[in-house]
Amino acid sequence: xxxxxxxxxxxxxxxxxxxxxxxxxxxxxxxxxxxxxxxxxxxxxxxxxxxxxxxxxxxxxxxxxxxxxxxxxxxxxxxxxxxxxxxxxxxxxxxxxxxxxxxxxxxx
Length: 108
Prior knowledge:
Helix content: 55-70%
Distance between the termini: 56 Å
Radius of gyration: 17 Å
Number of strands: 2
């Protein structure tokens, strides 16, 4: 599979490329370059998803996310596990906005 020319890519293709680039921006800063360690995951959650996840600085919150994502229990998050996080957050955001938009507007 080749990387498409960025001027000809669709919005979804750009989003996919961005997810790949974001994962690799944080993976491999320590240890395996194809996985996120606990510290790399915390940095990524804080920097990239802070608006959606709230206080990612909380060690218990990071441990919970790590435990939920680390399907193979190796103490690291691989790309597939990362995509599961992004997908789950995207579904949750979509559900929230659908619920929000379905609420009747208050009359003045």
